[in-house]
Write a structure and sequence with these properties.
The structure holds two protein chains of two kinds. Chain A is of the alpha+beta class. Helices cover 56% and strands 14% of the residues of chain A. By secondary structure, chain B is an alpha/beta fold. A five-stranded parallel sheet of chain B has the order 6-7-8-3-9, sandwiched between helices. A four-stranded antiparallel sheet of chain B has the order 2-1-4-5. Chain B is globular, with a radius of gyration of 17 Å. The chains are: A alpha+beta, B alpha/beta.
Chain lengths: 459, 224
């Protein structure tokens, strides 16, 4: 019989107290595993693997706000960029993919963020190696919408459902225009799941999404460094009016609509938004050949200008992970580690308290020829079995917790969690538990080592 | 000689600080396969003597040889190993481990000897003591007589050259006393194992050819 078999018998002898102490280790390990797995998932959500673009181009400002708003649809957008800049950017020979996104509105039902974009958004991988799967069809009409899987589940919308948008998150201002669900995305495990995508043309057709012509021309001239004198602007406005076929009546109608209460729209009505009046919130960019060097050079080039920034989304997110979430993880890992240590102390107390009852048992073994180091090792093995067994059970419980929570988390947050997610760092847990068990087993082990055999047998 | 003691003195320090001599033996020996019963008054040092012979306790001076090996000269680790391999022990209170089955109790004795654990021999021994059908029973599931028979099987497991039995029949009923006694004597005779049995029962002592009174060779008893 080996030491572990003998120790196992001893554990069975005190099954209830042994089980409870091992279970306390299980609970600590369960929490630790859950923290590690969930943090691992967060890490993947917020790293390069989750974003299929090398750069996010947006106005100057907080890079984190730009990435959070553009990719994760959290928080308010920065200022907008002129649509004409997007057109210019597309023509840059270094750029491979440039996709405009317009954010700010939400759905009336459920408050899901609206993203105005083009069909290119769906033909491009949303993460490396992962493509969108659409039930229905991509954008064909201006007022088509494609909804994420979570919107589908939460709002109960399906193909053909019509809905309205709330302007800029203000519940009081509901746009008249109705959009129709033309496609439903399969779950992606990304913020796309809780997003409603509308056709960029439809987005610009919504009243209030295009600036007054003169103001837009002035802004474009300022942005692009063209003359902003009254004469230059008047000439440019006249030029744009001609180019876009805008009459004074169109402009007046628009201003009346803005001032008066909107009449119910019997059908979709399109504003004649001129390109100079259009704006985009950000542009998703991949360089030609997906060259990281080219992306870094382009980003550096943008830093030198005053109007635009091009951010590698991984950089601010890694900062967020390391500066804030990393610390949260550290705190949680330390706390759960302490729980495990406390459980280890529980094992120590349990074994140590049992030692007085087991002096005779140990003395019998010694009388049968067991050496001091053998009885020491038996007690140590018992401590290791309790910690290891508790640890294995805790790992199973932790994964069980993740398994059970995965669909709930996905439903609540849109973050796709694999029920079988495993973090390599978990492999460190068991050796760490064995080390802990060895430490807590030393004192009771020494008590066994020092047992006075003759006296214990006489007792 | 299977056992030879020379000039053995064993003392204990009492709680009040006085030194109590429990053993003062000039000479004591047992021949090969000889069966000896040792009688003596309670508190006369019988258990202390068994502890010294088995190497559980060390004498303050003198030598103890078992089967030609002077165990008083061995370091503790070697003494433990020697005890596991060469000395069998049957206790008054059986001292079986309650978490282990009858078979496992026998195997446990083998485990500590460092030899290969021979499950077949363990089963044969349990068969020999009439417990072949109760090998998987744990001590609380066995009668006291059965428990002591398991203890006998355990003591013989490592083919010892000396069997020490400390009042082995004191805690069993009269019917089982004879069974246990016969079992120990027969098993020792079959295996040519020397036997030293401590008892205070004159009935038990009467069944042995050689009966030694501890007081006759332990000078400590005379001085107390």
């Amino acid at each position: 019989m080996n030491l572990f078999a003998i120790a196992g018998k001893s554990i069975r002898q005190r099954l209830l107290s042994s089980s409870l102490t091992a279970f306390s280790v299980s609970l600590g390990v369960m929490l630790m595993v859950a923290v590690l797995v969930i943090y691992g998932i967060m890490d993947r959500v917020f790293n390069q693997q989750a974003v299929g673009y090398q750069l996010i181009v947006g106005p100057k400002g907080s890079d984190m706000q730009l990435v959070l708003n553009t990719i994760y649809r959290v928080g308010a957008p920065l200022q907008n960029l002129p649509y004409l800049y997007f057109e210019e950017l597309k023509k840059d020979p270094r750029i491979g993919v440039a996709i405009p996104v317009c954010l700010g509105d939400t759905t009336q039902q459920g408050g899901f963020p609206i993203v105005g974009t083009t069909e290119d958004y769906f033909s491009h991988e949303y993460a490396p190696g992962r493509e969108f799967l659409i039930r229905g069809e991509p954008f064909t009409r201006s007022f088509d919408a494609i909804i994420g899987s979570q919107v589908y589940h939460t709002n109960g919308w399906d193909l053909g459902t019509e809905f309205r948008l709330v302007h800029g998150g203000a519940e009081s201002h509901v746009h008249d225009e109705k959009f129709t669900v033309a496609g439903v995305l399969a779950p992606t495990g990304t913020p796309n799941d809780k997003t409603v995508f509308i056709h960029l043309n439809g987005f610009y057709a919504i009243s209030g999404h295009d600036a007054p012509l003169k103001e837009a021309v002035k802004r474009w001239h300022e942005f692009s460094g063209q003359p902003t004198t009254d004469a230059a602007l008047d000439a440019a406005v006249a030029d744009w009016r001609k180019k876009c076929g805008i009459t004074d009546v169109d402009e007046d109608e628009k201003h009346e609509e803005k001032g008066a209460a909107p009449a119910p729209a019997p059908h979709h009505h399109h504003h004649k938004a001129c390109d100079v009046q259009k704006e985009v919130t950000a542009i998703l960019v991949n360089m030609k050949g997906d060259s990281m060097t080219a992306a870094a050079m382009f980003s550096g080039e943008m830093k030198r200008g005053h109007k635009v920034q091009a951010v590698n989304p991984i950089i601010p997110m890694q900062r967020l992970m390391s500066d804030i979430l990393g610390n949260v993880r550290t705190v949680l890992v330390v706390l759960t580690g302490l729980i495990i240590v406390v459980s280890g102390v529980g094992i120590f107390v349990s074994i140590y308290n049992s030692m007085s009852d087991r002096r005779k048992e140990i003395a019998i073994m010694r009388a049968l020829g067991a050496q001091r180091r053998t009885v020491f090792a038996i007690i140590l093995a018992e401590s290791i079995l309790l910690c290891f067994g508790g640890g294995i059970f805790g790992i199973l419980l932790g994964h069980g917790l993740v398994f059970s929570a995965a669909p709930i988390v996905q439903q609540q947050t849109g973050i796709l969690i694999s029920p079988f997610a495993f973090e390599p760092i978990e492999l460190v847990l068991l050796p760490a538990l064995i080390a802990l068990a060895s430490i807590v087993g030393v004192v009771p082990g020494l008590a066994a080592y020092r047992t006075d055999v003759a006296r214990a047998l006489a007792d | 000689m299977s056992l030879q003691l020379r000039n053995v003195i064993k003392t204990y320090r009492e709680p009040d600080g006085n030194i109590l001599t429990v053993l003062d033996i000039e000479s004591f020996q047992i021949g090969p396969a000889e069966q000896v019963v040792l009688v003596g008054a309670s508190g006369g040092g019988k258990t202390s003597l068994l502890n010294v012979i088995s190497g559980i306790s060390m004498p303050d001076q003198g030598s103890v040889s078992v089967g030609g090996t002077e165990i008083t000269r061995l370091p503790e680790v070697a003494r433990d190993r020697f005890r596991a391999e060469r000395i069998g022990f049957v206790f008054q209170t059986f001292n079986l481990l309650p978490a282990f089955s009858a078979l496992e109790n026998v195997l446990l004795g083998m485990s500590f000897s460092g030899k290969r654990v021979d499950a077949k021999r363990a089963r044969d021994l349990l068969e020999r003591v009439g417990l072949g059908h109760r090998t998987s029973h744990r001590p609380p599931q066995l009668s006291v007589g059965e428990q002591q028979r398991v203890a006998v099987a355990r003591a013989l497991a490592n083919r010892p050259s000396l069997l020490l039995a400390d009042e082995p029949t004191a805690n069993v009923d009269v019917r089982n006393q004879d069974v246990i006694l016969d079992l120990i004597r027969e098993a020792c005779a079959e295996s040519k194992v020397a036997l030293l049995m401590v008892t205070h029962s004159t009935d038990v002592a009467a069944r042995f050819q050689r009966v030694d009174r501890l007081e006759t060779f332990n000078r400590a008893g005379a001085t107390r």
